[in-house]
Amino acid sequence: MAVIGGGVIGLELGSVYQRLGTQVTVLQHTERICPFLDAEIGKAFQNSLKKQGMKFMLNSRVNSGVNNKADGVSLTVENAKDNKETQLDVDVCLVSIGRRPYTDGLGLENTDVRMNERNQVITNDQW
Q1: Per the confidence metrics, is the pTM higher than 0.90?
Q2: Domains (ranges, CATH) in the chain?
Q3: CA distance linking residue 66 with residue 51, whole number of Å
């Protein structure tokens, strides 16, 4: 299994599948997992996951080379440091690379709903 995205959700789901016996490889576009965490905590977390058998491809991004096959998925992975491409063939791929709002076309501009510059609905402490 390939998990695209080394954030908390991708790592949580990947670790569940790892403990169930799946070989998991995490692809992360930055130089470390969970880049929003303290670097030392993130490294300790990664070492813990490595001890469970999880593999990591850091500074790596999946380009447009994603091919669904009858027996799995073939990914073309590019290393951000040297632009070298490698092929990764897996049974299944989990994409966990973040979220963005899907508010276009909802007509919210015709309501009292307020949006921020990223088209996210502005909420208060009571949602």
Answers
A1: no
A2: 2-95 (3.50.50.60)
A3: 29
